[in-house]
Amino acid sequence: MLEVIDVQRRYRSGRGTGPLTLEVAAGEVLGVVGPNGAGKTTLFGALCGADDFQTGTVRLDGRELGRRLPAEACGFLPEQSRLFPQLTARQACRFEAAMRVLDLDDTALEEQLDRFGCADFRDTEVRHLSQGMTRRLGIACAFLGTPRVVVLDEPLNGLDVEGVLLFRRALADYLDSGGIALMSSHILSVLDEVCERMVLLKDGLVAATVDVREGGAERAYLEIFGH
């Protein structure tokens, strides 16, 4: 289980997130949504170490981890690609493995590229990839090494039908193995399909936590935000 307890990251403007508390069980996807400025990006970035929380603690499977997840335990797909444009797809995977201190050989990296439909452009520089190709590569990097937790910010952006199907299969396999996921999407029907619960953020705080197993994501959103 992932426990995020009384965490906060606020900026001088007052924007940001927290204090808030979340729990995500093994094999679960927790949906995290809210309007622009609700604090979702800050929450995800701080959890994955892009900008640590100022207060609170993170606990994973009962172990205290401080104010962020360790790199080796967390796969992160931000909404905006963080892949270096001058690297090839193959090099981008290798760099991700190095940054997360993953002991993966070239065969494992090649298999990951194949699994996410990146094999045909493995030697192409990121700057020459389409939006959909770049997104596929970002997803491949996020799931690299089967991390304990994956944080997925708008994972379907730019994906074609094949890319969406690859992602859905990979997520299902990951959850079947006991993985833990947090996921945002502006396509609320997607959250209905893959989540049991959804957290609604407003002004950086948890406005509501709702059960969405029976198609309640859009209804809950409208009840909280009114439009």
TrEMBL record:
Residues 2-224 form the ABC transporter domain. PROSITE patterns: ABC_TRANSPORTER_2 (PS50893). GO terms for molecular function: ATP binding; ATP hydrolysis activity. Keywords: ATP-binding, Nucleotide-binding, Transport. It holds the Pfam family ABC_tran. SMART domains: AAA. PANTHER family: ABC TRANSPORTER, ATP-BINDING PROTEIN (PTHR43335:SF4). Belongs to the ABC transporter superfamily. This is ABC-2 type transport system ATP-binding protein. It comes from Actinomyces ruminicola.
